[in-house]
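note to self — DONT lose this again. spent like an hour looking for the file last time. sequence + predicted structure for the chain T wanted, 866 res
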Amino acid sequence: MNAEQSRLKDSSWKKWGPYVSDRQWGTVREDYSANGDAWSFTTHDMARSRTYRWGEEAIAGICDRQQLLCFGLALWNKKDPIIKERYFGLSNPEGNHGEDVKELYYYLDSTPTHSYMKMLYKYPQHAFPYEWLVNENKHRTRQDPEFELIDTGIFNKDEYFDVFTEYAKNDQDDILIKITIHNRADTDAALNVMPTLWFRNTWSWGYKDDKPSMAANAQNRIQISHKDLEPMWLHTEGDCSLLFCENETNTNRFYHYDSGNKFYKDGINDHVVHGAESVNPRKTGTKAAVNYDITIGAKQSVTLRLRLSPDANYSFEDFDSIFKTRIIEADEFYADVVSPTQNPDRSLIQRQAFAGMLWNKQFYYSDIRHWLSGDPGQPKPPEQRKNARNSKWMHLNTRDIISMPDKWEYPWFAAWDLAFHCLPLARVDMAFAKNQLILLTRDWYMHPNGQLPAYEWDFSDGNPPVHAMVVWSVYKTDKEANDGKGDLYFLERIFHKLMLNFTWWVNRKDAQGNNVFEGGFLGLDNIGVFDRNTQLPMGQHLEQADGTSWMAMYSLNLLRIATELAEKDKAYADIASKFFEHFIYIVGAISNLGENNEGLWDDEDGFFYDQLRFPDNGSVKMKVRSIVGLIPLFATEVLNESDITDSPIFRDRMKWFSDNRPDLASLVSRWNERSADGKHLISLLRGFRMKSILKYMLDEKEFLSDYGIRSLSKYHLENPYHVDVNGMSFGIKYTPAESDSGLFGGNSNWRGPIWMPINYLIIDSLHKFYEYYGDGFKVECPTGSGNYMNLKDVSNELYRRVSKLFLRDENGKRPVFGDYEKLQTDPNFKDYILFYEFFDGDNGRGAGASHQTGWTGLIANCLYIS
């Protein structure tokens, strides 16, 4: 066991971490408007002057797990109108493809206890082009690409700073901070570097009178006093000055009255940029910056050292040796984690993927009851807020460290994103992965009706029910790592909550009670001809191939967990039988059972489609070839012979269906036929339907891209799909990356691109099929090539293609970087990876959120195999 693995056994090593958001402005939590316009209530421009209620943001930020004390980086290049203390980006209405951060920063390394962390921020030496970025994107349409920071040419002449921020812990509370600034230009350049400390404001809301404090001490030390933290000091080194203000709203700026506090949240900004008398000359406050006013020589670097410590008398004598030790320990930890390949590029990508996963943790604080009703120390919110967004989630009260999809674009948890995060997280921190899965099923998250909260913009939305699938996968990984001893307490504890959630789906998302589901958003908002989450005007509803398939998969996931639990407690065999029965009926419903042939399978095309159901019970299939027709592949599970023979109740129920409902039994693949090595396959798809779907999926003119599976078939580029409903015409056309439709608003992006979690689930399902069928079952891959592969080889081929998104090609270029030559070839750019939300289905270019090492962090798992 190496040093970091030992530290993982002591949770106190995680007391401090990168738990500060990349963006708090524009979030629902900070929106106290009457109309729910979060993006306008607190903008980027307001953020430097308005105190937040629920959380904090920073560049390279860290804090304690209750976010009482925060530390982050601020910079000023002598030319910007404001200091750079938060990332800039477009709000949702400003971007031609929705919200988007307009900065270049990279999460480069982190151990799971955050004993060592490293990130990079690229800061231009010329004035940051705030207005240009806003105006240019405003003028662009949805048919145009986004205008990014690198498109301005501001990095072309290397007139920028590379600012590396590193943290190393001496112990649980003793944190060493190293900031190394490289001047990449050919001329000297001046810069203010301002490491900043502040308290999250807990005193302005009318609940507590106690207010923490910071004060300058001898030798440029900052003394930190907070009743819920032990006394601490920030030790500085070198020539600097200390600037103090209060983390309180500038009432003069927003409300035109003087609250009596001269030193507002923006006081340091106004003093440094404008010379204003806006910092406290007594050198006390609740926000403080260490101001290094430096000049860095051409092509030179400067390193600044600080230490946040409970030791008032610390010196810097052992600083470098501690850093060196923690870096060596991080290397030792990842030597046991990353792929044991000889390809260093593969290892580099994996390690940065894990780093992004770990940096994207965030302190998430939300109390819906208080948020809706307001705080006693603040003006009463508008009356309309009583029925505002999420008002049906009055029980939700969170104060936890949660893995975020992207701390700038999505700085709030999302239920199905979080599940996917746990797959790579389990490889580096099993305890954290299991705790994250348990978290959303706790009483203060899960709705009393059994629904899991979807995401902050609408907790009531429906995300795909993938939780059980990931729970089982994480349990298996843990079991394999512990010589076959599984954590049954974890499995059983979460299983009971998942059964409640399954019942919610059955009761709320099956309008006709016919086992055909209408999930709503499901993360596929822009994959159909109209918004799949809206109520249609004439009472129609959309019966979804994906919603129904997700539920078939959910049934099998719970069946599989029940059979595992039944090994120790035979009462669970009854539960396994129940979920097998539910699965059978869902299969019957989706598979055209009955005289009216109204399931979601289309015999003519050999594909699954959504179906529009009318009030008179008529229907029409929406013949869009999209990933909704591939998701039936996921409803697949492999059982051992003992899972059946050792559970008489389950075994007898399976036999009953075989004897009494052969019409249903014949639809389910091979469940009553044992393979040569004693396996049973329970799948929504029998072999001929699976082959029909795979024929489309593996066709390079349809779904198969050089970089994975597209979310919409390229067939629809030349053959757009149209349908008329009540005199209105709807249509859909393949677009390889960003959507060209404004129908759904915001960042609508699911009309063709490659999407990592769906590719991962496809690959995982093919492995399950191979586990049963073995080498003898082959399909053509690619379709029309004459090359036949078994399903394991097909899955590895998909792994290989997905991995190509990030790996250098034969020309030394990474498809993820697109046509940006600077990113492809410059030694100070080319090995820093961004993990995008989705990827162009034709060329692999990254698009959408740029730090989505939430679900795109799944690439770390893919690189083990490809």
